Structure formats: C-alpha cells, structure tokens
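Write out this protein's structure.
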Amino acid sequence: MADANKQSAISRYFRETTGELKKVSWPTWPEARQMTYIVIAVMVVMGLYLALVDGIGEALINLAISA
C-alpha cells in the first residue's frame, strides 16, 4: 500500500511540475542571447575587478612583510 502511495505522490509531483512549467513566460531566443551576453560581460568585469583588488592586496602584504 505504501508503494502505491509513493508512486502516486511521485506521479502527482511530475504532473504538477509540468503544469507549472507550462505557465512560465519563457524568454525569446534574442532575449536569452542578450541576457547571456550581459551575464558574460558582468563576469568579465567582475573578474578584472577581483584581479585588480587581489594584485593591490598582494602588493600591500608584500610591502608590509618587507618593511
């Protein structure tokens, strides 16, 4: 009996999930491409910023150690 309830619950879960995914307003391909470019640009800018901060921190630590 527990097996049947478990299968029923799993089946209901997938049915409900499929129903919810049909309600989603998915972006068009051009919108998705544009958002992808924005994400990549932000990642590059943040990577450069973190590299700069890391370099400054390293220089300050080396300066403090050598002094």
